Amino acid sequence: MLFYLHPMLQRQEIHYCIFVVEQFDDGRFNKGLVMNSAFLEIQKSFGKFDCFVFHDVDMVPEDDRNIYLCQDKPVHLSPFIDKYQYLAHYGTDWGGVTMIKPDQYLEANGYSNMFWGWGYEDSDMEFRLKEKELSPVWPVNEESARYSMIEHDHPWRFQNDVNDIGSSGKITAKDKLRLAKKERSNWDGIHNTKYKFDHIFEDELFTKIYVDVRAFEAEELQIVIDEKVLEISQKIGNCSFKTFDQTYLDPHFFIRIQKYKAYYDEKSARSKCIEVGQICAGIVRLRNAGGKDWMMREKAVLLTPDDFRFKDSVPDFLQSQVKICEGQMFNVFPLLSSVKNSSYKSRMRLKFHHAIETSLIYRDVVVFEGKPTGITHEYPLNLKPENTKKDFSFSFETDNFDLPKYSGWYIVRAMISDRFEQIWYEWSFQFHVDDESTSSTSKRLGYLEVIDEMLEKYKDQKPDVKWSSEEKLEVRKAYSHGGDLV
């Protein structure tokens, strides 16, 4: 993108600086919080600018005549994009490439800090601008405001989560945020943005700023599974592979980027999987062709190789390797040996970067053999927000959670969230249960049939939840301030 942007801005004879701001941690992406942090850090450390252009890195300008100079009102610089056949109003009138004066950004209270994952933060910002009578306008040379969007896929872990059983009929956290957008706009934004400046990288063509938007970090994390301890390191280190014979990696999480959809030999598959980073979470051997037998997977979900998963019989050469990168929470951490009982608990020690305003809750959802079970757990943390501050440490241990006992692979996606269901920290782990009985296979297949029946039941449930007036009032009241409910 810079290859096109620098020459264009120079031809426009504009005095400018380009800052690339990146979320330092590898957790869930929060565009609004990163934008707010970038605005504050640039104003504090690099002087006062009279115009800010927020530029998604996948947007390439097609015409020099689209002028990057602020107008009286905030400007939607990218109303026409090739992906949408250059049709205007493609879902929002703010987003992609936008331009705004600093005082206008502050008056609107900037972006919301509460949209984790992808979607709706730009529409929320558009509402804020309109509320302050700062409705976005098109650029002066609107016929030249055309952009090409670089084709790309978000890795599975950066996408919004697939709903669990029955959740299509529930009111989600983002539904509540959208409903209470007016109530939130006064307190949730640039004026309550908290971040930690990590480091800076200066290049001839741009300045890169790394910001840490976490409220806390995990200093220690242990999972106790049937009395076996799975230690999840929090220190960034090397990547390695753990091998599981006669185990299958869920094919739903195939590599979607075309150039990586290929078979490799084992050594090359490992090397490529490390090279591409978070796009690859493991490799699986799918054939016996004398060399190039391995494919990559974006998410390492281990499965029992039951007959129904294969056209013919289960291949005897089947093998999966899970990539584990120390200190990186995008892994689905596996327990390396089987257990007899499907029970677990988590132990953690947290270190806070700054004070928080709401209580925290441990939540998790359980998956069996790649299918959502509908099983969830909650455990309120015995932590008072008023006690938190920078460098404050807090330790806790959850209850012991017991699951239905079937031979097979369980995945637990765990998280720490607040009363708004904002996910501040998340991790996933998987373990294999072997009840050592002769009927273990039939019991597992029977449980999978039960899960399939539940999934079928909820498949046709309409996602457009009808809100009662009482529910709407309750949500708006709850989101009228950022502290705990009394």
TrEMBL record:
Membrane-related topology note: Single-pass type II membrane protein
GO CC field: Golgi apparatus; membrane
Domain Galactosyltransferase C-terminal span(s) in chain numbering: 76-153
E.C. number: 2.4.1.-
Predominant location: membrane
Record's keyword annotation contains Glycoprotein: yes
Pathway listed: Protein modification; protein glycosylation
Protein's recorded name: Beta-1,4-galactosyltransferase
Organism: Oikopleura dioica (Tunicate)
